[in-house]
């Protein structure tokens, strides 16, 4: 089971106009995935359903360049492959209309969305699990990616063949014409919740097919029409320990969660608990704002929480608090007021999972990089805030911050 831990990129590397988009893997801040976006091959094309697209996020540390090996976590016998057309954002935007969406496309890429279903679905329950998909989609090497394909080389992204072979046997063979939600719709929808920034990657979904499992020692070869082809072997070994706030559209219930943030100061993977604190570079006071009704709807469907947790302004954050100023992070007072009424008043001494455990656990599945942020959970007292109210929160006597809530 996961504790309430959210990993986000804390680096101040906002994409700026004029960057070399061929290096999007190096500076892009988000990978946005779309699930269940293909109708069965050959079935009649119909208008998009009323229901919103299924959106999830992957950390950029999942990128794997050609020449690398896909790593299946130890304790797993297999993972699944999904070949996809990736859309590389070339111009930053928010609330983008469908009519202008293609102006924000800077190019394309061939991508694989590798998934560990055991970390998403509990086999002992129906396919509804009230947890995000972070570990199942976010392990290192989970997004093999090609070089940038210039936009001009794919004049019609709605008519591109996608195919994938495992050990020479065809497993996926489809066409982007079968996408349910087309690229302009996806760009417009996602940008209503979060800014799409230059260098971000939008994975548009994978064609329907039969079993998609791959095992250690196999090879995946995939292609996008005749534009590009790439091959990735599946590695035979990989260690894994099993075990102003702005209300987003469609949200009627917004909740606050005051938290201690841990800022990673040294990159590492497979970090032991005994060595974990050496990777801490400092701390921050943070608010994890949650669109609770959107989250509840996602839980019922077994969907990730990306829209409920990932909207713009969902993570108010303080400046860095030097590590030496908090000698004992397991005994820090956290508090929060709404319109001067105390709502949360607790201490990190009530953590279930202490910081070394969290760092060690997360780093078994994904690299923790310098500048990453771990949100460590929130004390009791989470409650609703409404437009016009003001949140004031603090971390002991070290820092205090105030945020108004607006539509």
Keywords:
EC 5.3.2.2; Fumarylacetoacetase-like_C; 6 helices; 407 residues; disordered N terminus; acetylpyruvate hydrolase activity; mainly beta; oxaloacetate tautomerase; globular; 6-stranded mixed beta sheet
- The SS-based structural class is mainly beta
Mean pLDDT: 88
Question: Could you list the spans in which at least 5 consecutive residues all have pLDDT below 50?
Answer: 1-16, 237-243
Strand residue percentage: 25-35%
First-to-last CA distance: 34 Å
| Rg over alpha carbons | 21 Å
Lateral strand order in the biggest sheet: 3-2-12-6-7-9
Helix content class: 10-25%
**Given the C-alpha coordinates, what overall shape results?**
globular
Q: How many extended strands?
A: 26
* Main pleated-sheet profile: 6 strands, mixed
Number of helices: 6
Organism: Acropora cervicornis (Staghorn coral)
Catalytic activity: oxaloacetate = enol-oxaloacetate
Pfam families: FAA_hydrolase
Keywords: Metal-binding
């Amino acid at each position: 089971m996961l504790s309430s831990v959210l990993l986000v990129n804390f680096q101040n590397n906002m994409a700026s106009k004029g960057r070399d988009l061929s290096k999007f893997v190096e500076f892009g801040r988000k990978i946005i995935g779309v699930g269940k976006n293909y109708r069965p091959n050959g079935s009649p094309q119909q208008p998009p359903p009323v229901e919103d697209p299924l959106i999830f996020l992957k950390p950029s540390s999942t990128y794997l360049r050609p020449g690398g090996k896909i790593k299946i976590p130890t304790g797993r016998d297999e993972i699944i492959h999904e070949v996809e057309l990736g859309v590389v954002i070339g111009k930053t935007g928010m609330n983008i209309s469908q009519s202008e969406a293609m102006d924000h496309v800077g190019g394309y890429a061939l991508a694989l969305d590798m998934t560990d279903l055991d970390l998403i679905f509990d086999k002992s329950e129906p396919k509804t699990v009230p947890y995000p998909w972070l570990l199942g989609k976010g392990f290192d090497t989970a997004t093999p990616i090609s070089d940038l394909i210039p936009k001009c080389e794919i004049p019609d992204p709605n008519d591109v063949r996608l195919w994938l072979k495992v050990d020479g046997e065809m497993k996926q063979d489809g066409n982007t014409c079968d996408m349910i939600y087309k690229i302009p719709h996806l760009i417009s929808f996602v940008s209503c919740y979060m800014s799409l920034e230059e260098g971000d990657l939008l994975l548009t979904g994978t064609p329907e097919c039969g079993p998609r499992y791959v095992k250690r020692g196999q090879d995946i070869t995939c292609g996008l029409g005749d534009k590009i082809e790439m091959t990735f072997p599946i590695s035979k070994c990989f260690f894994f320990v099993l075990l102003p706030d702005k209300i987003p559209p469609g949200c009627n219930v917004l909740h606050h969660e005051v938290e201690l943030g841990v800022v990673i100061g040294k990159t590492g993977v497979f970090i032991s608990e005994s060595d974990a604190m050496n990777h801490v570079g400092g701390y921050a006071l943070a608010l994890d704002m949650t669109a609770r009704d959107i989250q509840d709807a996602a839980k019922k469907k077994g969907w990730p929480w990306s829209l409920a947790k990932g909207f713009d302004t969902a993570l108010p954050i303080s400046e860095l608090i030097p590590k030496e100023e908090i000698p004992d992070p397991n005994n820090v007072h956290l508090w929060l007021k709404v319109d001067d009424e105390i709502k949360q008043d607790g201490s990190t001494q009530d953590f279930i999972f202490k910081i070394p455990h969290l760092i060690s656990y997360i780093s078994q599945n994904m690299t923790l990089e310098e500048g990453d942020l771990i949100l460590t959970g929130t004390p009791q007292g989470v409650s609703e805030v409404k437009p016009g109210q003001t949140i004031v929160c603090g971390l002991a006597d070290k820092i205090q911050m105030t945020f108004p809530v607006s539509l």
